Amino acid sequence: MSIETEVQAVAEGFDRALLANDAPRIADHFTDDWRYVGPDGMVAKTDLIEWIASGRLAHHTMEAAGPEHTVATQDALLVTCRRVSTGAWEGEPYTADEWITDLWVRSGETWRCAFSQKTPA
Q: Percentage of the chain surpassing pLDDT 70?
């Protein structure tokens, strides 16, 4: 099985966890030192998980808006794609059209996301 196929299977589980707003399952997909970088700066794993667990952040839909581009090494995969999503932040609905780059790293027998960056499309 290719690295791309392995990561895609894990990433699909991650997407399901996000859409279910299942904070513990989402957390399992990240390395402990995972960081997200977006237009407002950097966010730590603990902050994101708390936002989801408390309901401050909710994900409703997420769809690919084009093909993925991947770069693989033996124990890492960089994935860039465009996605359109909806959700709510502090009760206010949002729609996002973003370029997303995730760095997936091998962690034992599975893969975990170590870094994510989003840029508005």
A: 100
